[in-house]
Automatic annotation (TrEMBL):
PANTHER family given in the database record: PERIPLASMIC PEPTIDASE SUBFAMILY S1B
SUPFAM superfamilies (UniProt xref): Trypsin-like serine proteases
Keyword GTP-binding carried by entry: no
InterPro entries xrefs: Pep_S46, Peptidase_S1_PA, Peptidase_S1_PA_chymotrypsin
Residues spanning the signal sequence: 1-21
GO BP term (any one): proteolysis
Enzyme Commission number: 3.4.14.-
Keywords recorded for this protein, A-Z: Aminopeptidase, Hydrolase, Protease, Serine protease, Signal
Name under which the protein is recorded: Dipeptidyl-peptidase
Keyword Disulfide bond annotated: no
Family: Belongs to the peptidase S46 family.
An example Gene Ontology molecular-function term: dipeptidyl-peptidase activity
Length: 719
């Protein structure tokens, strides 16, 4: 079947009669032609397609957007009030925190608009318009303007997006940004027009003892008792247009906001989630799953484990360090534990067996079809060839591109050296200014040089134990030759004596920069050799990337044809999607049953004053013991905290609204369950669950603990 014919069939059949309602991250813009709304109604939906997504009017889509750089948020009042997860707002909470104003520990509650805190760098993006540009891209391919692989790349699509934007009626409008992306591995292309607001202020955040209750112990686990929410507000100019922060800005009057239901929920109730899932890999072959486990996940587990061990110790010893590294620790540990769980779940859930069965069926389907015959075998051959390089790359990247913060931008040093040798004042002055910026970036308020030194001393030997000497970056040779293999001696020399190590060293060099100082600077040598090694590995891997991209494009197109009329949805790529399912409990193993919701009773059961992860604030404990839950309690007087649904989500969906059959907000998605962490690769209908924060617990904390009745009054609450 030709590509065009396949896409037509895909559009018509993507929600075929055999679809499982819980699996799938579906594109809003295809709902009508795919007839998906009828299947959703059979599950319990009481809305029409235009209520969810209306390209010519206002819909639920207009109340959902991208919060920050990697989460979802929703508008819950006509005054631009945003609800998202606590862990999504964590960087902003940490940004505003200090030992004197420790909002991480104490929480933050703005009691009026003047107390809402501007948060530089934080943005909120709405999807204004979505356009199908597949025909435009394919025409350029057919005309020889671009090849199939280049058509999927960011530079080409960014250029195309700008060309199309310049011809659109949105050109010149404030805050509009555009993005063109491939779907179905390049078989389909869409362009997104986004309206971006940059004056976003912090409004409310519970203390971490609520917002992160259970910490890393409970992360990815059920049962859960985490109040994972925070609130922000969008401000705009007097005309409601995006504007940089100004005292004169006003809360945004949004065209759509979500009504909130506190009527409660029962097992089997319809639940849908609209949000921005970040990345999935549902169409991998067996060999690629193996590579994910061994060459990507294991490096993350090993290296981050070493770093987190150091950070946990130093953060426990100092409040200043705890605040400095809180966001870094949380960001690193989240996918460290995810990788551990994914590798375990791949084995426990026999993902390899499922993929092998799919490949067997595909081989039968591909017989006599030249475009598909042998595709899997060719993918496997490339994976087998490149897996050792991939493993090297990820170990190096995890160890020295993210784990250790200190270093030098060697390219600036090289330019400065050139300027000094040529006595070119222009190059010298420019390089020195750049070095000032780099020094300030390294030695910021959230950096501790001695903590970073300890991390380096943990990671250098761990990396060397795993990677053979001939595969390591060249700075390891310096350690062997000049420091007799003593990692600590090398690290101390670099952290004590390098140009960017401290203010005294830096000032001395800036006063009289010399070629000799640059040449002997250990941080510059470290920086240069690690980047050269990373670039060398990337270049080797890129040698097969084009062939692999074309093979994947054919494989995913073929799988779509093979599975008809069963639907095929594109992998997540941080674009707006809809997933629907039901509120549901599950049985993780023999003789174990997990109920679909938790209550505040579990908070007291887990309480441990000696463990920071399970400390219960005194006021919350008092409210629970008195059962002072107000109108948010269950009929029996208990207070719900979290609930489970069968919705298909992944990272990026954090903060997404969970909506009932009427499109009313009932919760906020924040996690997946441990038993199904292989879900990014293979969805398991029996085990996959989305962990959601019950909106009633949000409102209870906001009102009873935060004293923010004024925010409650902003909302449209349905009892």
């Amino acid at each position: 079947m030709k590509i065009r014919t396949y896409l037509v069939a895909l559009a018509a059949l993507a929600f075929g009669s055999t679809t499982r309602a819980d699996e799938g991250m579906w594109l809003l813009q295809l709902m009508k032609q795919q007839n998906s709304i009828e299947l959703m109604k059979k599950q319990g939906l009481k809305l029409e397609a235009d209520d969810l997504y209306n390209p010519n009017g206002v819909s639920l889509k207009d109340a959902v957007g991208i919060f920050g750089g990697g989460c979802t948020g929703e508008i819950i009042s006509p005054e631009g009030l945003i609800l998202t997860n606590h862990h999504c707002g964590y960087a902003s909470i940490q940004q505003h925190s200090s030992v004197e104003h420790d909002y991480l520990t104490d929480g933050f509650w703005a009691k009026n608009r003047s107390e809402e805190l501007p948060t530089p760098g934080l943005k909120f993006q709405f999807v204004d318009r979505i356009e199908d540009i597949t025909d435009i891209v394919n025409q350029k391919i057919a005309a020889g303007e671009v090849d199939e692989v280049t058509a999927m790349t960011r530079p080409f699509l960014n250029k195309l997006a700008k060309e199309l934007f310049d011809k659109s009626d949105l050109k010149g409008k404030k805050g509009i940004e555009v993005q063109a992306l491939p779907f179905y591995a390049g078989n389909k292309f869409y362009m997104f027009y986004k309206k971006v607001y940059s004056d976003v202020r912090m409004v409310a955040a519970p203390p971490s003892s609520i917002g992160k209750f259970g910490g890393e112990t409970d992360n990815w686990m059920w049962p859960r008792h985490t109040g994972d929410f925070s609130m922000f507000r969008i401000y705009a100019d007097a005309n409601g247009e995006p504007a940089e922060y100004a005292a004169s800005n006003v809360p945004l009057k949004t065209p759509k906001f979500l009504s909130i239901s506190i009527k409660g929920l029962e097992e089997g109730d319809y639940a849908m989630i609209m949000g921005f899932p970040g990345s999935t890999s549902r169409y991998l072959t067996v060999s690629e799953v193996k590579a994910r486990m061994e060459a990507e996940n294991q490096p993350r587990i090993t290296i981050r484990g070493a770093r987190l061990g150091v950070l946990k110790e130093v953060m426990a010893a100092s409040d200043k360090t705890r605040i400095q590294y809180a966001n870094k620790y949380a960001g690193s540990s989240n996918y460290w534990k995810n990788s551990i769980g994914m590798n375990k779940a791949i084995i426990d859930n026999d993902v390899m067996g499922t993929k092998a069965e799919q490949e067997k069926k595909f081989a039968e389907f591909a017989k006599g079809k030249p475009e598909y015959e042998g595709v899997v075998e060719k993918i496997d051959a490339i994976v087998d060839q490149t897996m050792p390089l991939t493993r090297q790359y990820y170990y190096l990247a995890e160890a020295f591109s993210g784990a250790i913060e200190f270093g030098s931008t060697y390219m600036i040093m090289d330019n400065l050296k050139k300027g000094l040798e040529e006595k070119n004042d222009s190059i010298i002055n420019k390089s020195l200014e750049q070095l000032k910026e780099v020094y300030a970036e390294i030695h910021n308020k959230d950096y501790d040089h001695e903590v970073d030194r300890k991390v380096a001393k943990a990671i250098f030997p761990v990396y060397a134990e795993i990677i053979p000497a001939e595969q390591r970056p060249a700075f390891y040779q310096i350690i062997e030759k000049e420091f007799k293999g003593d990692y600590n001696a090398f690290i101390d020399a670099m952290y004590d004596n390098s140009i960017l190590a401290n203010q005294a060293n830096f000032d001395k060099f800036m006063k009289k920069p010399t070629v000799k100082a640059i040449e002997k600077d250990l941080a510059t040598q470290y920086s240069r050799t690690k980047i050269e090694k990373l670039m060398s590995l990337a270049q080797e891997l890129n040698g097969t990337s084009k062939e692999l991209a074309l093979l994947h494009k054919a494989y995913i197109r073929g799988l779509g044809e093979m599975k008809e009329p069963v639907p095929s949805y594109p992998d997540a790529n941080f674009t707006i999607r809809l997933t629907y399912g039901n509120v549901k409990s599950y049985n993780p193993r023999d003789a174990v049953h997990y109920k679909y919701y938790t209550t505040t009773d579990g908070i007291l059961e887990k309480e441990n004053p000696e463990d920071r992860e399970f400390v219960v604030p005194a006021k919350l404990k008092e409210l629970i013991q008195k059962k002072d839950f107000g109108r948010y309690a269950l009929p029996n007087g208990d207070m719900p905290v979290c609930f489970l649904s069968t919705n298909d989500i992944t990272g990026g969906n954090s903060g997404s609204p969970v909506l009932n059959a009427n499109g009313e907000l009932i919760g906020c998605a924040f996690d997946g369950n441990w038993e199904s962490l292989s879900g990014d690769i293979n969805f398991d209908n029996n085990l996959q669950r989305c962990i959601n924060l019950d909106i009633r617990y949000v409102l209870f904390i906001l009102e009873k603990l935060g004293g923010c009745e004024h925010l409650i009054k902003e909302m449209n609450i349905i009892e």
